[in-house]
Amino acid sequence: MRNRSALILTTVLTTGALTLTACGSRDKDNNDDNAGDKKTVVIGFDAPLTGDLSALGIGMRNSAELAVKTANKENTVDGVEFKLQPLDDQAQPSVGGQNAQKFISNDDVLGVVGPLNSSVSQSMQKPFNDASLTQISPANTGTELTQGDGWKKGDKKRQFKTFFRTATTDQVQGQFAAQYLYQKANIKKVYLIDDQKTYGAGLAASFKDTFTDLGGKIVGQDHVNPEDRDFKSVVSKVKGKGAQAVYYGGEYPAAAPLSQQLKESGAKIPLMGGDGMKSEEFPKLNKKAVGDLGTSVGKPVEELDSAKKFIEEYNKNYKENMETYGGGTYDATWAIIEAVKIVVDDNDGKLPSDSREKVLDAMSKVKFDGVTGTVSFDEYGDTTNTMMTAYQVNKQNKWESKFSEAYKPR
Amino acid sequence: MNELPQQLANGLILGAMYGLIAIGYTMVYGIVQLINFAHGEIFMVGGFGALTVFLWLPDGFSLLAAVPLMIIGGVICSVAVGTAAERFAYRPLRGAPRLAPLITAIGLSILLQQAVWKWYPDAKKDRGFPQFGGDPVHIFGADIQRGDFFLIIAAPACMLILGWYVNKTRSGRGMQATAQDPDTAKLMGINTDRIIVMAFAIGAAFAAVAAVGYGLHNGQVGFKMGFIMGLKAFTAAVLGGIGNIYGAMLGGIVLGVAEALATGYMHDVPGMEQFGGGAWKDVWAFALLILVLLLRPQGLLGERVADRA
């Protein structure tokens, strides 16, 4: 047939082309107004500001902006005017890599806050490391990002000297979830599902190890595609396995329909997930969320005295919800501000010419009381704060904190 | 517990959705030999059109009564976009080399996606879609959600109407004639431009019906939903034999059932444990496509050229 080759060509071309379409616009930020004789220090910010995960990303951007504004208003560092440069990574590693190059090429950038996704971080770490540019992620929980692939065997090795985070690792979070389910919720049989991304798979692996160690049983395991919204076939399988709960390693856009379809299938069991699922959007998108469980890093910011002022300021300035990572992002941004302060103080109140290296050196000295607790970093760049909280969706369809503890990794 | 009936039901419902969208690909291809890659986005626009109607209705309005209105709203939106696309994007390119309208289709697809992303309120992330409450209905060993009855009824109804239209009405026969030989059809006094617009409009209307089904099934619509669904529906159209309207529905159902069975049972095949489950279902669906095209390059029903429309 005459048209066959054209049809095949069409198919191939289009599939390829459509995969590449995800390059949207990006905000350009080029007002270089130096207020008086103040030196401008730019803090880069990277997170998904559009797309599925934008609810989390926008909450992060607002929190980072608030930290910068506060520092400028209170004149935290004399002679320095901070500016935030937010870029959108669309939750895609390739876009994140391009953003990293942008930050590096701007000499005024002395630190970067972000990103949200562990998989995006993997494309940013190396360039930042080569440029000695400090990066602090409030949300990356992939254990290997700081400790290397050998962490499971106890062979921890710092990967990149420039990478820090205010979020606890998947390892800690998965273990905490397993322990909570087994000991507190008295659930012994779990079906495990993950979305095969760095974050989801890591969380599921860590959960599995701890849960089986404790004596629990994984009655089945499955993987899904994070872009899917139809999980009927997967949940039909869960139903016959006698699981008392499903643990999902992944994020809320897929977790919401998964949980709803799970309950609709007739299996009256809760879905549990990590901080990627514990979003305010989750119960909104899911009409049967009641009873679902989620873990998150740190104490609920609403319950911390140190966070009262932050929450008040945030709600005054922004209409979007701060979401899971608001407090952590504020702390991450503030950590960079503190590091700049240390550098400036050590250099007679001026910014040195090799500021990036100096800021990086100062990171190990940073220690302050932040929104989520005391902020400081250990020898791997991980936060020393391992406070974890388990939440459950209550009858009002809102997350409610159930249990917090400073978790000691096993 | 035997989960086979449940998995078959899951696959049928998903397949009906694929099939309804695939009709749009197949009709347009049958007449103008163009793969309208913006069709997935027309589907998406239909979903948002239906959602808009629902949001306009007063609170407490019965969803059962709202669904027909939502279908009308969705159909109006997608038909408007579909015919406008034909008029302003594809018609000026008629007779141009085949790659030109193809690239236009891709551009249009991006344009529509970004337009909804930019201007539809709160559409930068998934938006919730109304859903029927109540317990699922138990039939033949499978639990069927109330919302899914929409697709179970709508898909065959749409097919019957389409079959009647193509075979029995004057403009339907004109459509067949145009598909077989546009030049001769024109000489016989058929307004081929109008027929082409009709093909786009019917495809868009079916996509809107599928979009309402998608919303009721998944409980949400998003600006990105047209991409994957469009790709799957295109696959279904090719699987069934592109250009054949019954083939499109058959291809959709085969694809849907194949996905459901691969998710449900591939685990149990010895040596295939790691290739089962939700993550691999697309691989198996496409493997099936390749297999079918190797054995029957024209697709499952591709031979019945006379039925082309």
TrEMBL record, chain A:
It comes from Streptomyces longispororuber. Residues 133-153 are annotated as: Disordered. This is Branched chain amino acid ABC transporter substrate-binding protein. The keyword Signal applies. It comes from the Bacteria. InterPro entries: Leu-bd (IPR028081), Peripla_BP_I (IPR028082). Coiled coil: none annotated. Belongs to the leucine-binding protein family. Residues 40-396 form the Leucine-binding protein domain.
Automatic annotation (TrEMBL), chain B:
It is a multi-pass membrane protein. GO terms for molecular function: L-isoleucine transmembrane transporter activity; L-leucine transmembrane transporter activity; L-phenylalanine transmembrane transporter activity; L-valine transmembrane transporter activity. InterPro entries: ABC_transp_permease, BCAA_transport_permease. Its main location: membrane. It is found in: Cell membrane. It holds the Pfam family BPD_transp_2. Keywords: Amino-acid transport, Cell inner membrane, Cell membrane, Membrane, Transmembrane, Transmembrane helix, Transport. One of its GO terms (biological process) is L-alanine transport. The keyword Cell inner membrane applies. The chain crosses the membrane at residues 12-32, 39-57, 63-85, 97-117, 149-166, 195-215, 246-266. One of its GO terms (cellular component) is plasma membrane. Signal peptide: none annotated. Belongs to the binding-protein-dependent transport system permease family. LivHM subfamily. This is Branched-chain amino acid ABC transporter permease.
